[in-house]
Amino acid sequence: MVSQSELVKEARENGMELLPLDKDTYELFFGPQHMATENFSIILKMDGHRVVKAIANPGFLHRGFEKLAEFRPWYTNIALLLRICVPEPDVPEAIYSMAVDELMGWEVPERAQWIRTVVLEMARVSSYLFWTMGLGFKLGVYTAGQWAAAYRERLMALFEELTGARVYHIYTIPGGVRRDIPSDKWLRQLKDTVEYIKDKLKDFDNVLFENYITHRRMEGIGVMDKKFALDEGVTGPNLRATGVAADVRKLDPYLFYPELDFEIPVLKEGDALARALVRRFELEQDLYILEQLLEMGPPSGAYKVQDPRLKALPRFKVPAGEAYAHVEATMGDFGAYVVSDGGSKPYRVQIRGPSIAHGIRVLEQLLVGARIADVPVILMSLGNCPPDIDR
Amino acid sequence: MVDWRLFEPLFNYARKKSLWIVAFCTGCGGIEMPPLMTSRYDLERFGMMPNPAPRMADLFLITGYVTPKTLKRIIITYELQPDPKYVLAHGSCPLNGGIYWDSYNAIKHLDRYIPVDVAIAGCMPRPEAVMDGIKKIMEMIENGTADGWKRYKENYEWYKKNQDELFGEGWREKEARRWIPWLKKK
Amino acid sequence: MIMGMKIKVAPEEEVKKRPSFIKPWMSLKYLFKKPVTIKIPYEPTQIAENYRGFHTLNWKTCIGCNMCGQICPARAIEMTWIEGEKRPHPKVDYGRCTFCQFCVDVCPTNALGFVSNYMLTTVWKDEELELFDWVPLPEEKVKKFTDYRHPLAKIEKLEDGKVRYVLRDGETVEFKILGYGLKPPKLQQKKEEKKA
Amino acid sequence: MAKEEVIVQKVLEKAPYAEGKVKRERRIEFKVPADRIREFLMIMKENNFESMMQITVVDWLKDGEFELVYQLWSYTYAVHAFVKTRIPRDLDKARMPTVKDIYPVAETYERDAHDFYGVYFEGNEKMEMPWILDDAEQGLFPHRKDFDWLGYTKRKYKILDRFDEDKDNYVI
Question: Looking at this predicted complex, what is its ipTM?
Answer without folding.
Answer: 0.89
